[in-house]
Amino acid sequence: MTQFAPHRARKRFGQNFLHDPGVIDRIHRAIAPREGQHLVEIGPGQGAITQGLLASGARLEVVELDNDLHPILLARFGHLPNFTLHKGDALKFDFASLADDQPLRVVGNLPYNISTPLMFHLLKQSAQIADMHFMLQKEVVQRLAAPVGGNHYGRLGIMVQYYCQVEHLFDVGPGAFSPAPKVDSAIVRLTPHAELPHRAENPGILEQVVREAFNQRRKTLRNTLRPLLDADSIAAEGLDPGLRPEQVDLAGFVRLANRLARHSGASATQKD
Ligand code: SAM
């Protein structure tokens, strides 16, 4: 096996390296990469997941920010024809530019400090993405997968569920990492919808309505949405203005956003 220099984990890069072979194997089985597929790994680190992905014969491109890890990755995998290293920031990376005849399968044990903006960066490019498998804080996965009415249901889950089917696959304890994080983790699968089940005329307005609604999650829609839509407008979309935001499903929020989009500008809160 190739020898490589010991690396000190850096907090600012969200570095918690996986070392538990059982967990790594479970991740590989969840992803199930196949020869001929086109994968992208975000934050390969020292290659804990990378090695098994490459062994499948799939094409693998990795995006790593930490310059100290580049020589380690090249020493381990640089000779393999199916491996490409991109040195840089995944938040600025143009993932769609990698897509060719094969849609991308994106994977990563993500740096937790940037996981939410990174997911939204990827969702903007979801037309080129077949699926995504991420290790995230367990609490974030619970929010992503939250059904309507539950404690974890809110802005993050609604906006991600707008674009993707979300599956909470399994949990991973802190002991699987070095150094061990202070929180539990979980693996999630995000599969972009081939066709959006509920299409917002303007996703920016959907985001605005959901953000406003959950600003005060104990209040009713009538109160939280007052700056955007009045009670009659809410009722006209088939929703009781006395509901709390966590009782409104994605389809309901999309109807409210489409109403606001149609009435946006000076008359955003006017009735028909
Ligand atoms: N995949 C490795 C593993 O499972 O052991 C490392 C996971 S570690 C939680 C996160 C990785 O993402 C680190 O290698 C870190 O350097 C890298 N990283 C942090 N911020 C990044 C960014 N903005 N773009 C690309 N990689 C980043």
Overall morphology = elongated
How many angstroms separate the termini? Answer: 71 Å
Determine the structural class based on helices, strands and strand pairing: alpha/beta
What order do the helices and strands follow?
EHEHEHEEHEHHEEEHHHH
Task: Count up the helices.
Answer: 10
**Percentage of residues in DSSP E strands:** 15-25%
User: What is the number of beta strands?
Assistant: 9
Q: Give the biggest sheet.
A: 7 strands, mixed
Rg on CA atoms, Å: 21 Å
The distinct bound ligands, ions and cofactors come out as: S-adenosylmethionine
Proportion in helices: 25-40%
Low-confidence stretches: 266-272
The spatial strand order of the largest sheet comes to: 4-3-2-5-6-9-7
Average residue-wise pLDDT: 93
Describe the structure.
The chain is of the alpha/beta class. 32% of the residues lie in helices and 19% in strands. It has a seven-stranded mixed sheet with strand order 4-3-2-5-6-9-7, sandwiched between helices. The model is unreliable at 266-272 (pLDDT under 50). S-adenosylmethionine binds at residues 13-18, 42-45, 48-49, 63-66, 69, 89-91, 109, 111, 114.
Give the SSE map:
Layout (H helix, E strand, L loop, with lengths): L16 E2 L2 H11 L6 E5 L7 H6 L3 E6 L5 H8 L5 E5 L16 E6 L5 H9 L5 E9 H8 L9 H9 E9 L4 E2 L6 E8 L10 H12 L6 H4 L6 H6 L13 H13 L10
Parallel strand pairs: 2-3, 2-5, 3-4, 5-6
Antiparallel strand pairs: 1-8, 6-9, 7-9
Helix pairs in contact: 5-6, 7-10
The site of S-adenosylmethionine has 23 residues, from strand 1 and strand 3.
In summary, what is this structure?
The protein has ten helices and nine strands.
